[in-house]
Write a structure and sequence with these properties.
The complex is a heterodimer of chains A (483) and B (128). Chain A folds into 3 domains: 65 residues, no CATH class; 256 residues, Type I PLP-dependent aspartate aminotransferase-like (Major domain) (Aspartate Aminotransferase, domain 2), CATH 3.40.640.10; 126 residues, Aspartate Aminotransferase, domain 1, CATH 3.90.1150. Chain A is 34% helix and 10% strand. Chain A has a 7-stranded mixed β-sheet, sandwiched between helices. Chain A has 483 residues and is of the alpha/beta class. Chain B is globular, with a radius of gyration of 13 Å. In chain B, a hairpin with a 4-residue loop joins strand 1 and strand 2. Chain B is 17% helix and 34% strand. Chain B has a single domain, classed as Beta Barrel (OB fold (Dihydrolipoamide Acetyltransferase, E2P)), CATH 2.40.50. The model of chain B has no long low-confidence stretch (mean pLDDT 92). Chain B has 128 residues and is α+β, with helices and mostly antiparallel strands. The chains are: A alpha/beta (483), B alpha+beta (128). At the A-B interface, helix 14 of A face loops of B.
Chain lengths: 483, 128
């Protein structure tokens, strides 16, 4: 494979074209007669001119450089990179969905509205919530929606609450969301066992507490077993509990955030519900709420009067729209197909297998890699490069070496509270053979740290590009092709 | 790992050097080693008030973005503007050219309450 694949502009030759469009059968006319002069280009756009074979080879070559769940194992911690069943792609392309216009009369879009209505019901049931909005476009957007709802709720009660409590193991999006919402973040340290320190939480909670944002299981893959007490502390202070659904894949059908005391939940359809994640497509981050918060949900809310489905805009306390139309509809259709195919038992088995796979990795790797927390994990496990550090091998180097074995590396240097962290989330869709292959690679790298550290430090060796200078890329980024 | 004798330290790995009524503040050698290559420093404005224990700036490394907490309270009278173009000064010389800000002390005795060299050395060793 060529390291420096030229850009499509570099292979351009004047006069070449990929498709002969033939002669038009409508009379030609001057652009000036159709488009106002000030909107016309002064000179023609510099579009690439290439032949069809060159065009196909160029993009096919680029596509082979991609790595996704369809190409290999992708144990990126806290991201739930599970396999996306292809039948869901088929279903979301049914003409009944793709030929709809978002502004057409609800009367003529009953099937799509029924799907939205049912989907909200299913997600509410899974999360233990009373109502769900499907509008948010991804997890962080769900957080923003959730905090806006919480803010509106406090305001409706004549209260001004400005602080959001976030544990130090939280996802970076949690404090970022609080800041975007105009609220102040208060950090709470974890105790030695990796769980929220109750004493620190008691000290942080007070009359200015708007909410606590928590992931359960937390980012260390540990279940916050004191969750009821945590909820009591926050509720006693008059605050609400926000559940970051990033780790929902651990507890589906086994435990519900609503039963733990959470008031608001977001779910990531692109993680837990098997829709494409990352570059594979837009996300979706539905938000569920408990009853007292329903009036504040974004408009419109899909409704059903017993006979017909509709869109309810008459909600004076709503925080307003947070997405155009009804959310990322195609993603919702995929996730709906997934939920219906799996059924309640299937979804429970998803979580059970996800937890089993993570514990299998943890138990087979904890001899070679330091495990900072005793006992079992849930759907993901955190190891560290502490045993390899004396040889000069860090988490980053191990991640780079894994590329030579054909694996996407785990998440590294997160959670921030664990030094040299390697965070592995295998998901339920991987076979024992795949996990064994990954474990073997990890063990070989651990052994190699002692025998040939230089080989790890200069990895990757088998990829198109070798070790990239990430520091220079961050300090002096080159973000355009022509200077 | 260098831990100069004459400086005062915090448990969050900031250092303070008192020069009259002004405290020069930076992050320790231990902190820069933990962070790895630093790529961006969000410099606060001169004249801004800082409060001991509260975040006053963010340092971004290839690994993470980290809050930096003010070791003392007072007014920022000078900012190390060189860091805008050369954030790596913190990696190269954390106690010298890599200083962050100078703070006019609200309470001249506040630095006395910070960790001394011995106490910080113990803390850093535990963290390793």
């Amino acid at each position: 494979m060529k390291e420096n694949q030229p850009t499509i502009f570099e292979i351009s030759k004047p006069g070449r074209f990929a498709l002969d469009l033939g002669k038009g059968d409508v009379p030609a006319c001057d652009l000036e007669t159709l488009v106002p002069a000030h909107l016309l280009r002064a000179k023609p756009a510099e579009l690439p001119e290439v032949s069809q074979p060159d065009l196909m080879r160029h993009y096919t070559a680029l596509s082979t450089r991609n790595f996704g769940v369809d190409s290999g194992f992708y144990p990126l911690g806290s991201c739930t990179m599970k396999y996306n069943p292809k039948v869901n792609e088929d279903v979301c392309r049914y003409p009944g969905f793709t030929d709809l216009h978002p502004l057409q009369d609800p009367e003529s879009a009953q099937g799509a509205l029924e799907l939205l209505y049912n989907m909200a019901q299913h997600l509410a049931e899974l999360a233990g919530m009373d109502a769900v909005t499907l509008q948010p476009a991804a997890g962080a957007h769900g957080e923003l929606t959730g905090l806006k709802i919480i803010k509106a709720y406090h305001r409706s009660r004549g209260e001004t609450r400005t602080k959001v409590i976030v544990p130090d193991s939280a996802h970076g999006t949690n404090p970022a969301t609080a800041t975007v919402c105009g609220l102040e973040t208060v950090g709470v340290k974890s105790a030695g066992d990796g769980l929220v320190c109750l004493e620190a939480l008691k000290a942080a909670a007070g009359p200015d507490t708007a909410a606590l944002m928590l992931t359960n299981p937390n980012t260390l893959g540990l279940f916050e077993k004191n969750i009821r007490e945590i909820a009591e502390i926050i509720h006693d202070a008059g605050g609400l509990l926000y559940y970051d659904g990033a780790n929902m894949n651990a507890i589906m059908g086994l435990a519900r955030p609503g039963d733990m005391g959470f008031d608001v939940v977001h779910l990531n359809l692109h993680k837990t519900f098997a829709t494409p994640h990352g570059g594979g497509g837009p996300g979706s981050g539905p938000v569920g709420v408990k009853k007292p918060l329903i009036p504040f949900l974004p408009v419109p809310v899909p409704s059903f009067d017993g006979q017909k489905y509709g869109l309810d805009y008459d909600r004076p306390s709503s925080i307003g729209r947070i997405h155009s139309f009804y959310g990322n509809f195609g993603v919702i259709v995929r996730a709906y197909a997934y939920i219906r195919a799996m059924g309640p038992e299937g979804l429970r088995q998803v979580s059970e297998d996800a937890v089993l796979n993570a514990n299998y990795c943890l138990s087979r790797l904890r001899e070679d890699y330091h495990a900072p927390f005793a006992g079992n994990c849930l759907h993901e496990c955190v190891l560290t490069a502490r045993n390899q550090k004396p040889f000069g091998v860090k988490a980053l180097d191990i991640a780079k070496r894994l590329l030579d074995y054909g694996y996407h590396p785990p998440t590294i240097y997160f959670p921030l509270i664990v030094e040299e962290a390697l965070m592995i989330e295998p998901t339920e869709t991987e076979s024992k053979e795949t996990l064994d292959g990954f474990i073997r690679a990890m063990r070989e790298i651990a052994a190699e740290a002692g025998t040939d550290a230089a080989r790890i430090l200069s990895a990757p060796h088998s990829t198109v590009a070798g070790r990239l200078d990430e520091t220079a890329a961050a300090r002096k980024p080159v973000v355009r092709w022509k200077p | 790992m260098k831990i100069p004798k004459e400086l005062r330290y915090t448990k969050d790995h900031e250092w303070v050097r008192v020069e009259g009524t002004v405290a020069v503040v930076g992050i320790t050698d231990f902190a820069q080693l933990q962070l790895g290559d630093i790529v961006f420093v969000e410099l606060p404005g001169e004249g801004a008030m800082v409060k001991a224990g509260e975040s006053f700036t963010v340092i971004e490394s290839v690994k993470a973005a980290s809050d930096i907490y003010a070791p003392v309270s007072g007014k920022i009278v000078k900012v190390n503007a060189a860091l805008a173009d050369a954030p790596d000064l913190i990696n190269q010389d954390p106690y010298g050219d890599g200083w962050l800000v100078a703070v006019e002390l609200a309470d001249g005795s506040e630095p006395d309450g910070l960790l001394d060299n011995d106490a910080y050395t113990r803390l850093a060793e535990e963290g390793q």
